[in-house]
Amino acid sequence: MSLLEARNLGVGYTIPGAGLFGAPRHLPIVHEVSLSLQPGRTLGVVGESGCGKSTLGRALLQLIPSSAGQVFWQGQDMAKIPNLRRRRSEMQIIFQDPIAALDPRMTLGKIVSRPLATFEPELSKAAARARAVEALQQVGLSADFADRYPHELSGGQAQRVGIARAIVGRPKMIICDEPVSALDVSIQAQVINLLMDLQESMGLALVFISHNLAVVRHISHEVMVMCLGRVVEKAPRSEFYARPLHPYSKALMDAVPEPDPRREKGRVGTALPGELPSVLNPPKGCVFATRCPLAAEMCHNSRPLLREVAPERHVACHFVEGA
Amino acid sequence: MPSDISPPFAAPTAEPASTLRLQFRRFRKNRLAMASVYLLTLIVLMCFFGPMFFPFTGEDADFDNIGAPVNLFSIHPFGTDDYGRDLFIRVLEGGQVSLTIGFLGALVAGGIGVLYGAAAGYVGGRLDGFMMRLVEVLYGFPYVILVILLSLLFGGGTVSLFAAIVFTLWLTPAVIVRAQAQSLAQREFIQAARAGGMTGGRIVLQHIVPNCVSVVIVYGSLLVPEVILSESFLSFLGIGVKEPQASWGNLIQVGTSAMSTDLRLLLLPGGLLATVLFCLNFIADGLRDAFDPNDR
Ligand SMILES: Nc1ncnc2c1ncn2[C@@H]1O[C@H](COP(=O)(O)OP(=O)(O)OP(=O)(O)O)[C@@H](O)[C@H]1O
Ligand SMILES: [Mg+2]
């Protein structure tokens, strides 16, 4: 049984209607995403900025409601788990912006120990603090950080605190939403290695969201490529990097080798030529058709389905034959 | 098992300081605001403890000294009114009423407004829309008519006055805090709190409200003079605090009617009220300067 499984997950946001009396509208962002994650494994999710990776990550934990499909946690439909709130210790998340993810009014000790007040209410204050200090040490921060405030931290230190908060309740899975994209290149490797160490020592499963294909290659067992809220390719890591099949994956791959540290924080999306369709007005056909070098008439009119073209390799493209 | 790739960071050695503490440190550097704090404290202490040093209360009439003039060395340093009541004591006792209503009113109105606004901003959606429409409707309600209605309901006096003040003054803090809460609700640490299993109520109380504290302190300090002023205004109109109970408002009202013959009946309560209002406004200004996130 998978630890986490999504079936045809759709997610969107409710936005205020136009004008004074306009009814609120639903803005769909993520469409028909299916995935499954085994304990201790890592699924890498890549895609350009704005394609809905963070939205998907939050919906996988049901932090925002999904509009279609289901998410299963250890085989149980999450929408139907009674008192899901109390089981959240098993599934945690690390955020894209490490500083914004820490309450500026709380000390780090309080931030890290706060989840324990909910998950293990029988724990005394002192014991909870001891656990928080232990978690801080696990991520390489000394105990005296417990009395600091978030504004005293560097980005890398803040991200470590975010990781400490995620592991303090001893989870089974962590969604890592671009955990290193806001950090300096020199710090990125440290944080990635820390996550891999923790994965090994705690048996964690990871969903690793990133726009950086090189980082994903380093940490993932399986890779999922998203474009405009849809999965266009899904494959085991080595096969994927040896030969990406979808034209979009290839384009992303070509946009990668730029070891300029300033570009590292930028987004791959800017490197792809052609017009990026708006989420407000999604194309009828293939989501990549407007920018695809192979695009033909049918690509604009009918959307290719995600199909298995080789064992464990799924691609959504009209032109990819069985490999 | 600390990871060997990353040497443990040592924390910086300086005293840890919350932003709140830094902001108060900045406030203390503001001379005018600090002077106002001291003066206000002095006035408050005088109002609450001053009357203890006199052998009579503000309601005791001294028939031998009716309408006594100012004589700083007599038993009635600022004289007595037409009923022989000591004016100084009456002004101090009136101050007790006005200051209590001012601070308590601001506290209650502010508290209600903050909780209401924080909840609306956090929840969002339809409920938020409904809650804010309600505030708009209440905004439209004419203030003086409300006071008259409430005084009919509660039989007038301090209670209905207080109710009316709270009823009208919680609206603005609610609107201000709601805007702040709305933007806070989008921040990632709120998502993190939800991932940490916190309930909506706890998130509002433990994350949203504490992060609104700057706005609340600044706005709250403006609320106090507003409440004192409306108390005085209503008592002046005769709908608020009733004789023989003194308040600055009704003392000023008595003072104005005797203005042409005896100015001190107006000057003493009026001067004290003005001083308090000045102090509170300087303090509010200082707090705003210290807390304004834009100049960081
Ligand atoms: N609260 C919201 N309300 C309405 N629309 C939103 C909201 N949050 C995100 N969106 C929209 O959803 C789309 C996907 O956003 P998301 O944050 O999931 O992208 P992302 O893939 O994580 O991008 P990035 O790489 O920049 O983090 C964007 O077009 C964004 O404008
Ligand atoms: Mg994102």
From TrEMBL, chain A:
The keyword Secreted does not apply. It is found in: Cell inner membrane. InterPro entries: AAA+_ATPase, ABC_transp_ATP-bind, ABC_transporter-like_ATP-bd, ABC_transporter-like_CS, Oligopep_ABC_C, P-loop_NTPase. Transmembrane segments: none annotated. It is a peripheral membrane protein. Pfam families: ABC_tran (PF00005), oligo_HPY (PF08352). Gene3D superfamilies: P-loop containing nucleotide triphosphate hydrolases (3.40.50.300). GO terms for molecular function: ATP binding. Residues 254-274 are annotated as: Disordered. Residues 15-253 form the ABC transporter domain. Keywords: ATP-binding, Nucleotide-binding, Transport. Belongs to the ABC transporter superfamily. This is ATP-binding cassette domain-containing protein. It comes from Pseudogemmobacter lacusdianii.
Automatic annotation (TrEMBL), chain B:
Keywords: Cell inner membrane, Cell membrane, Membrane, Peptide transport, Protein transport, Transmembrane, Transmembrane helix, Transport. PROSITE patterns: ABC_TM1. InterPro entries: BP-dependent_transpt_permease, MetI-like, MetI-like_sf, OppC_N. It is found in: Cell inner membrane; Cell membrane. Its main location: membrane. Residues 95-284 form the ABC transmembrane type-1 domain. The chain crosses the membrane at residues 32-54, 101-125, 137-155, 161-179, 265-284. The keyword ATP-binding does not apply. It is a multi-pass membrane protein. Belongs to the binding-protein-dependent transport system permease family. OppBC subfamily. This is Oligopeptide transport system permease protein OppC. It comes from Pseudogemmobacter lacusdianii.
